[in-house]
UniProtKB/TrEMBL annotation, chains A, B:
<dbReference type="InterPro" id="IPR002293">
    <property type="entry name" value="AA/rel_permease1"/>
</dbReference>
<feature type="transmembrane region" description="Helical">
    <location>
        <begin position="112"/>
        <end position="134"/>
    </location>
</feature>
<feature type="transmembrane region" description="Helical">
    <location>
        <begin position="376"/>
        <end position="398"/>
    </location>
</feature>
<feature type="transmembrane region" description="Helical">
    <location>
        <begin position="330"/>
        <end position="355"/>
    </location>
</feature>
<feature type="transmembrane region" description="Helical">
    <location>
        <begin position="264"/>
        <end position="285"/>
    </location>
</feature>
<feature type="transmembrane region" description="Helical">
    <location>
        <begin position="223"/>
        <end position="243"/>
    </location>
</feature>
<dbReference type="InterPro" id="IPR053153">
    <property type="entry name" value="APC_K+_Transporter"/>
</dbReference>
<feature type="transmembrane region" description="Helical">
    <location>
        <begin position="68"/>
        <end position="85"/>
    </location>
</feature>
<feature type="transmembrane region" description="Helical">
    <location>
        <begin position="404"/>
        <end position="426"/>
    </location>
</feature>
<keyword id="KW-0472">Membrane</keyword>
<feature type="transmembrane region" description="Helical">
    <location>
        <begin position="447"/>
        <end position="465"/>
    </location>
</feature>
<dbReference type="Pfam" id="PF13520">
    <property type="entry name" value="AA_permease_2"/>
</dbReference>
<keyword id="KW-0812">Transmembrane</keyword>
<protein>
    <submittedName>
        <fullName>APC family permease</fullName>
    </submittedName>
</protein>
<feature type="transmembrane region" description="Helical">
    <location>
        <begin position="140"/>
        <end position="161"/>
    </location>
</feature>
<keyword id="KW-1133">Transmembrane helix</keyword>
<feature type="transmembrane region" description="Helical">
    <location>
        <begin position="173"/>
        <end position="194"/>
    </location>
</feature>
Length: 667, 667
C-alpha cells in the first residue's frame, strides 16, 4: 500500500529534485516570446468568434460589413496598449508589473484594486482558454462534442498536477507549440490568400446558412446597432489579454533586460495583429456564419431554422476550408491551437502564485503564501486557482462565449490603473532634480501613457456598459469581495503586530522562577518511556507523570506496571467522573498555576509520527485537542515528544523542484 | 464580529451546561415507551403505502384483495421478532444489543457484520423518516409539494444542530408527540370504524381512480405475481425497524430493568400491530389507490391516464376521508405524524454515536470516537450521519419509496445474526454447571430465538431476492465497504500497539546526556521574548536563538535590535539561499544531532493562540509545517510556546451538555 502510494505520488507529483538544479538561467528573446506570449497569441483562437457571433445577432450580412471596423478598433487598442507597456517595461524593470506601478504611484488602494482584478482575471484565463481549447479540439475530434465540460475539467486537473509537479516553463516543451501555432496560422493566411487570388478558395461549412436577426433587433434601430457594435468590440478586446505578462517578467530576460522585454512586447503585439487581421479577412472571404450559443435558432438553411448543428470555431472552419483536400493541415492546426490554449491557461498557473506571493509579502494575503521556498505555499495557490476555474467551467458549461462576458474587465481595470500610475510616475520624475533620462523622452512617454490610459479607460467603460448584465457584473462583484477580504487580512496583521510590539523597558525579559514538568501517560509503551526520559533529561524543578482515570481497570494496570518497573517518577492519577480527558488535565494545570503563579508548567505529550494522512486520523486526536486547549492557558508550554512509527519512514522528504512562475521571475 | 459570532454559536449550539446537571435519571416505562418506540411506531406512516403501491403495480383490485395477506405476514414477523427480543433483553441486560450478542456468541466478525449493517441502517432511518415526514406534512401543507428535498435537508440540518446542542431525549418534548401520534391514529381507527358501521365513511380522494397494470404485468403470470407479493411483503417489513432499539437500551430502564424493558417491547409491538392493521383496513374501506412514483401514468380516471396528480400518503388520504368535515383532525394528524417521523430520525442521531463509540472502544473505529466526555467525538459522528443522510435524501429526491428499497436489509442482517447468536447462547448456558435460570425456560427461549432466526433469515432472503437490483444492492455494498474499513483500522491499531510494546529489559529508560535548546526567532516581539524566557528557565546545557536569513534587511534589523537590547543568548543566523524556512532548520538540527547523538534537541517555537479558525489560517502556518517536519527527526522535541492574542479570550471554553444517546444508555 505504502509502496503503491509512493509510486502513485511520484507519477503525479514527480521525483524530488535538488534545488541547485534550478540554476539562474535567464531567457533569451526566442524563449521569452513563446513563454510570455502564449496567452496573448492564443486569444486569436476565440476573439474572432466573439466578434462575428455578436455582430451576427443583427442577422443578415451585418457581420461581414462590420467585422472589419471592429477588428480595426481592436488593432488600434492593441497598438496603444503595447506602446504604453513598452514605457512600463523601461520604467519598472523590477517586474512588479501593474500592481507595483499602481501601488508606487497611486497608493496601496489602487494597487489592491489592480491585484483583485488580476486574481479574478487569472482564474478566467484558465476557464476561457481551456474551454476554447476544448472547443477548437472538437473541430478535429468530433467525439468531444457533448463532453466539453468533462474534457475541460480533466485538462485543468492535468495542468494542476503538472504545476504541483513543478514543470519549468523554459523548456522546448513550452516553446515549440507556440512557434508551431504561429506557423500554422501564418500558413493558413498565406495558403488562404493564394487560393483566394487563384479563385480556388472553398466556402466555409457555415457559408450555406443565412443568419436571421434576433426578434427584437430589427425594431430597435440605430441605437441598438451601435450598442451591438460596442459589445462586439468589447468581446474582440479579449485579444489583448496577456499583454501585461511581459511587464511582470522583465527580470527573467537576458541583458539588456528592459530593451529585450520591450522588443519582445512589440514582436508579440505585431504577431497578434497580423494573426487577428488574417483570420477575420479569411472569415469574410469564406463566408463564415457564427451564431450565439445562447440565442440558438437564428441559423437558417433555405429560410428554415436549423435544429441541430455542431458549430465549429472560426479557426476550425477556416482550416477545413483553406486546407480542403489536405487533412493533415486541418488536424495539425487543431492540435497546436488546443495545445497553445492549454499553455495560455498554464500562464495563469504561473502568474497567480507569484502575484499571491507579492500580495502576501505586503500583508494583503496570508503570510504563508509568501514563503517562496515552500511547496505548500504554491500548492495552495494552485489548488485555489484550479478549483475556481473548474467551478467556472462547470457553471458555464465550458462555453467560451459565456465566460468571455466575465473576462477582460479585470485586465482593463489593471491596464487603466497602471497607465494612470505611469502618468504620475513621469510627472514626479519630471519634477525630480537629476532625472535619469531626458525630459523630452519622459514627456513623450507621458503622452503615450496618457493615450494608453484614455484608451483603456474607454474600453473598460464600454466593456462595463455592454456586458455588465451579461456576466461582467459577477466579475466586478468577485473583485470587490477579494478587495474587501484583503483589506481585512492586512488590518488583522497590523492589529496583531501592534499587540505584539515590545515595550522599550526590559520587563519582557523577566524569567519564570521554576519549571513544573508533567508527562502525560495513558499506557506504558515506548513513546511514553521516551517522553519520560526526555522530561527527566531537562531536569525540571518538579517532575510528575499524570494519567487520567477514564477506565478504572486500565488505570490500575498502568499503576501496577509502573511499580513493577520501578519508574523513578511519581505517577499522579486524576479522577474523571465523566470519562473526559481534556478537562481534568486543564483543571489540574490551572491548579498548579494558581498555587505557584511564577512557575512555568511544561506539559510533555507523547505523539505518534505517521506516514499517511489517514493514519493521522487514527492517532494523536486526543493529544491534538488537549494541546490546542492547553495553549489557551497562560504560563503553559506544550512539548511534543515524537515517536516515529515505522510507517513514517521515507515520508519525511519534501519536494524541491522548480516553483510555478520561477522562470518568469528570473530568479 | 467576535460578539456576533459567539451569539450565533450560542443560538445554534446552545449555552454551555454543567455536567453535574446531567444526573443519573433512569426511565420509567411511560417515558421509555415514547423514547424507544418512535422509530418503530412511526413506520406505520410509510409501511402501508409501500404495501399498497407495490401491489398496485399489478393493477386493478389486486391491492385490495392481497393487502390483507401481506399485512398478516408482517404482523406474524413482528410477533416473532418481539418475542425473540424479549429473550435478548433478559439474557443481555447490559444494553450491548445485537452487536454484543453477535460478538459474544459468534465471534468478532459476526459482531462487525451486525455493526456495519446497523451503521448503514441508522443512516437510512434518518433519510427514510425525514422523507416520509415531509411527504406526510405535504398532505396538510400543499405548499411543500415540489420542495420536498429542500425541506428534508433543512430538517436534517435542524436535527443536527439540536443534537450538537445536546438536547436530552427524556423530556416531555420527546414523549408528548409520540403519545399524540398514538392518540391520533387510534382516534382515526375508531372514528373510521364508527363511520363505516353507520355507512357514513366517505371514499378517499384516490378512490375515483382505477389502476392500470404495468405493461408487462398481465403477461408474466403467476410467478410474477408471487414475486410482487414477496416484494410488497419486504416493503411492509419496514414496520419492524426500530424494534431492536429497546435491546440496546436496557440499562436506561428503571428496575427491574429487564422486566420493564420486555414489557415495553411487548407494548410497542402490540401498538404497532394495532396501528398497522387499522390503517390497512381503513385504506381498503376508503378505496385508496397508490401508484409507484417510479412508474407513473398507471393511474386512470375514466379509463384515461392522469397526467399530473400530487399523491398524498395513505395516512394523509385516510385522515382527509375519516375526518371529512373536521379539518382540525386532519391538520392535527399531519402535524403529529410529521413530528414523530422527525423524532424517529432523531433516534438514529442517538444510536449512531453510541454504536460508533462501542466500536471505537473495541478498536474497529478511530479511538477518538470512544472518548465519551468529549463533545468532538460525538460531533464527528453526528456530522458524518447527517452528511450521509442528506446525500441520500438529495440523490433519491426525498422519495421514501425509493429509499425503502435500500432500507431494512441492515435491520434484518442484524436480527438474523443476533437470533443465531442467541441460540448459541442458550446452548452454552444449557451445558453450564449452574445455570442461573431453569433448563426448561432456557429451552423454551431457545425455541423462540430459533423461530426468530428462521423467520428473520427468511425475510432477509426475501428482501435481498426482491430488492437487490432495486437498491438493496447499494446498501449491501455500503456494508461490505464499512466492514472492510473497520477490519483495516483494527489491523492498523494492532500493528502499532505491537510496535510500541516495551521490552522487559530497562533499555528504554536510558536518559539522554544533555539538552541542546534552540529558540526560533523571526522578529523580536512579545511571543519571541516569552519563548526565550521560558527556554532560559529550563536551564538547558546549550541555549541558542536561531533565525533563518530569508530577507537580509529583516535579518540585519533583528541582529541590531538583539544587540541593542543586550539579550543574553547567542543569535545564530542560518543562511537560506532559496528563501526557505523549514529545510535550513531541519538541516541545522540534524547537524547538531550528528555532532552529539546522545543530546536531545529541544526546539522552542513561539505560537500565536487565536480565537477563530480563520485567524488560524493567517498565523502559525510556517510553524505548523516546521513542526510536522521536525517531528520526523529522531531525538528532537518540539515545545510550543503559546502567546495568547486578545482575540483568543473567551474562546477557550468547551461545551459540556448531554451527549446524544446518553438517556438511552442509562448513564
Amino acid at each position: 500500500m505504502s509502496g503503491t502510494g509512493r509510486a502513485l505520488k511520484r507519477l503525479v507529483v514527480g521525483r524530488a529534485m535538488r534545488s541547485d538544479k534550478l540554476g539562474d538561467t535567464l531567457l533569451p528573446k526566442k524563449l521569452a516570446l513563446p513563454i510570455f506570449a502564449s496567452d496573448a497569441l492564443s486569444s486569436v483562437a476565440y476573439a474572432p468568434d466573439e466578434i462575428l457571433l455578436t455582430l451576427g445577432l443583427a442577422g443578415g450580412s451585418f457581420a461581414f460589413t462590420h467585422s472589419w471596423q471592429i477588428t480595426l478598433g481592436v488593432v488600434c487598442v492593441m497598438a496603444v496598449v503595447v506602446a504604453s507597456y513598452r514605457q512600463n517595461v523601461h520604467a519598472y524593470p523590477s517586474g512588479g508589473g501593474d500592481y507595483e506601478v499602481a501601488t508606487t504611484n497611486l497608493g496601496p488602494k489602487a494597487g489592491l484594486t489592480v491585484a483583485s482584478a488580476l486574481l479574478v482575471d487569472y482564474t478566467l484565463t484558465v476557464a476561457v482558454s481551456i474551454s476554447s481549447g476544448v472547443q477548437n479540439a472538437a473541430s478535429a475530434l468530433p467525439a468531444i462534442h457533448g463532453h466539453e465540460v468533462i474534457v475541460a475539467v480533466f485538462l485543468i486537473i492535468g495542468l494542476t498536477a503538472m504545476n504541483l509537479r513543478g514543470v519549468r516553463e523554459s523548456g522546448s516543451f513550452f516553446a515549440i507549440p507556440v512557434y508551431l501555432f504561429m506557423l500554422g496560422v501564418i500558413a493558413l493566411a498565406i495558403v488562404g490568400t493564394i487560393r483566394k487570388l487563384t479563385g480556388d478558395l472553398p466556402l466555409a461549412e457555415s457559408a450555406k446558412f443565412t443568419l436571421a436577426p434576433q426578434p427584437h433587433m430589427d425594431t430597435l434601430g440605430q441605437v441598438a446597432l451601435v450598442f451591438l457594435l460596442l459589445r462586439a468590440f468589447s468581446s474582440g478586446c479579449a485579444a489583448l489579454t496577456g499583454v501585461e505578462a511581459i511587464s511582470n517578467g522583465v527580470p527573467a530576460f537576458k541583458k539588456p533586460k528592459s530593451k529585450n522585454a520591450a522588443t519582445t512586447l512589440l514582436l508579440m503585439g505585431s504577431l497578434s495583429v497580423v494573426m487577428l487581421v488574417s483570420i477575420v479577412t479569411l472569415a469574410n472571404w469564406t463566408g463564415i456564419h457564427i451564431q450565439d450559443p445562447d440565442h440558438p435558432g437564428n441559423l437558417l438553411l433555405n429560410g428554415k431554422p436549423v435544429a441541430h448543428y455542431n458549430e465549429d470555431t472560426v479557426l476550425g472552419q477556416l482550416s477545413h476550408a483553406v486546407f480542403h483536400g489536405f487533412p493533415p493541415g486541418v488536424i495539425f492546426l487543431a492540435i497546436v491551437t488546443g495545445v497553445i490554449l492549454v499553455l495560455a491557461a498554464n500562464t495563469a498557473f504561473n502568474g497567480f502564485p507569484v502575484l499571491a506571493s507579492i500580495l502576501a509579502r505586503d500583508g494583503w494575503l496570508p503570510r504563508q503564501l509568501h514563503t517562496r521556498g515552500d511547496r505548500l505555499a504554491y500548492s495552495n495557490g494552485i489548488l485555489i486557482l484550479a478549483g475556481m476555474a473548474m467551478l467556472l467551467v462547470i457553471v458555464y458549461g465550458a462555453e467560451p462565449t459565456r465566460l468571455i462576458q466575465l473576462y477582460i474587465v479585470g485586465v482593463f481595470v489593471s491596464f487603466t490603473t497602471s497607465q494612470i500610475g505611469m502618468i504620475r510616475h513621469w510627472n514626479r520624475n519630471l519634477r525630480a532634480e537629476n532625472p535619469p533620462i531626458s525630459p523630452a523622452r519622459m514627456k513623450r512617454a507621458r503622452v503615450i501613457n496618457a493615450v494608453g490610459a484614455v484608451m483603456s479607460g474607454t474600453v473598460l467603460a464600454v466593456v462595463l456598459l455592454t456586458k455588465f448584465t451579461h456576466g461582467a457584473g459577477y466579475a466586478v462583484a468577485a473583485m470587490v469581495v477579494l478587495f474587501a477580504l484583503m483589506v481585512q487580512i492586512r488590518r488583522h496583521y497590523t492589529r496583531v503586530s501592534e499587540e505584539l510590539q515590545l515595550a522599550e523597558s526590559a520587563d519582557d525579559q523577566l524569567l519564570p522562577s521554576r519549571v513544573h514538568a508533567i508527562v502525560l501517560v495513558s499506557k506504558l509503551h515506548k513513546p511514553a518511556m521516551r517522553a519520560l526520559a526526555y522530561a527527566r533529561a531537562t531536569r525540571p524543578s518538579v517532575l510528575e507523570a499524570v494519567t487520567v482515570d477514564v477506565e478504572p481497570e486500565e488505570t490500575q494496570a498502568l499503576q501496577e506496571e509502573w511499580e513493577r518497573r520501578e519508574i523513578p517518577v511519581t505517577l499522579k492519577i486524576i479522577a474523571s467522573p465523566y470519562r473526559e480527558i481534556t478537562r481534568p488535565i486543564i483543571k489540574y494545570v490551572k491548579t498548579i498555576r494558581r498555587d505557584s503563579p511564577r512557575d512555568v508548567v511544561m506539559v510533555y505529550i507523547p505523539e505518534y509520527v505517521v506516514g499517511h494522512w489517514y493514519e493521522q486520523l487514527l492517532h494523536n486526536q486526543s493529544a491534538l485537542r488537549l494541546k490546542s486547549r492547553l495553549l489557551f492557558t497562560p504560563g503553559v508550554l506544550v512539548a511534543s515528544v515524537p515517536w516515529q512509527l515505522r510507517s513514517s519512514q521515507g515520508h519525511e522528504q519534501d519536494y524541491d523542484g522548480p516553483r510555478p512562475g520561477s522562470v518568469r521571475r528570473g530568479r
